Fold:
Amino acid sequence: MTRRSRRIAVYPGSFDPLHNGHLDLIGRCRPMFDEVVVAVLRNEEKRPLFSLEERVEMISSLVADPGWCRVESFSGLLVDFMDRVGAQAVVRGLRAVSDFEYEFQMALMNRRLNPRVETVFMVPREDYIYLSSRLVKEVFALGGELSGLVPGPVLERLRERVGRR
Ligand code: PNS
Structure:
């Protein structure tokens, strides 16, 4: 199969940190795409809890699958990154109506920047519909229970970073 005929999707985000809703979505890409590139945004100005390198390494250890899924970092426009990796589709998760307006704006702007780019929205498993990286960090910092919501290695990293057992 040539690079042009492969259905390549980019799943972009901050992933600070990755949670089970993200993992669920990556799994849902399997029957739809020949390859998925998880693209971690370089967003140091947002003061992420985990550095870009930590996020790429953590996610790679959980999802990298040679020939099917790889993890890369990116900065600049998403559509330019997609051109570099030969992707036609952006995958985004839609959880609730509150996600819709932001996602709709991004999808239309990305299409305006590159009309060949399609955005594919996917709905995660119901158990994860309320989950966000922001809530994961907040609940963890305040002592809440997160097992079943974030992968074990991410929970371990949170313990190291936030200093809670
Ligand atoms: O998980 P997030 O933080 O909601 O992901 C947002 C992300 C990374 C998809 C978005 O910020 C993005 O694509 N940034 C790259 C810059 C860009 O292309 N901006 C124009 C998008 S319309």
